[in-house]
Amino acid sequence: MQDTRLTPILSIGGLVALWIVAGFLTDDPQILPQPWDLVPRFQQELASGELLRNLWATLLRVIWAFALAMTLGTAIGLAMGRSPAVNRWLDPWLVIFLNLPALVLIVLCYLWIGLTEAAAITAVTLNKIPNVATILREGGRALNPDLDAMAQVYRIPWLTRMRHVIIPQLAPFIAAASRSGLSLIWKIVLVVEFLGRSSGVGFQIHLYFQLFDVAMVLVYAFSFIAVMLLVEWLVLQPSERKARRWRAA
User: The whole model's pTM is what?
Assistant: First the structure.
């Protein structure tokens, strides 16, 4: 039986092979450098400390925006899923914010709040809350009414009910929102940094874009992609499997 653990490695290997072929066909390192051409540039940035400093700055913004968006989006989505009246009132807001371009919110936050860290995190958070709320609204609608009625009959305290009745049922929806949310948030964070911050991966990409340095753009892009892949494989996927385990039991 084929070891499925090798599949992601082989898949990434195929992507790298395609990159190498495209590099040979282009035959211009200024347009598309080969993967091995990035190694000395990566080592240089790592040794100077710039790479780690900017990765950490971006990661902090991702963590803050992710935590705020998941907390607020879960509360809003659950309220909409549990209450038809709340859903009728908030659904138009949800539709508007879902269709409002991320760039518009980023620019407005910078204009209203200023080119500050608070504006950057607020812009990313506002962009993600509607997506989380949409997923968790479906989770609220999917809650088993029999379990809820049983909890009320036995007068289970609210916190205990949330921990043992509501959260386990919402776990797959929270996991789905987390996975999709993280991939969206870090991309928006890069745009926020590109437009108005003085640190982070997005700022560095903006800097090397102005210098037409494709190699350094790829170094910073792939460095943060590697960080996000580690988070996906080591944190999010195991959490999602654990969240779905009780349904298969």
Answer: 0.82
- Distance of alpha carbon 69 from alpha carbon 79, whole angstroms: 15
Q: What is the pLDDT of residue 232?
A: 77
pLDDT tens digit sequence for 185-234: 888 998 999 888 888 889 999 999 988 888 899 999 888 888 888 887 78
- CB contact at 8 A, 135 and 77: yes
Residue 202: is it exposed, middle or buried by C-beta count within 10 angstroms (0-12/13-18/19+)?
buried
DSSP H stretches of helix in the chain: 7-26, 35-48, 50-82, 84-99, 102-113, 117-141, 145-153, 158-161, 167-196, 201-210, 214-231, 237-248
Per-residue confidence at 1, pLDDT binned at 50, 70, 90?
Answer: very low
DSSP code of 235? I
Report pLDDT for 76: 93
Spatial CB neighbours of 137, under 8 Å, sequence gap ≥ 6: 77, 78, 80, 81, 87
Q: What is the dihedral of CA 230, 234, 239, 241, to 10 degrees?
A: 110
Three-state DSSP at 20 gives: helix
DSSP state of 5: G
Task: Break the chain into its structural domains and give their ranges.
Answer: 41-248
CATH number assigned to the domain covering 41-248: 1.10.3720.10
How far apart (Å, rounded) are the C-alpha atoms in residues 196 and 113?
A: 12
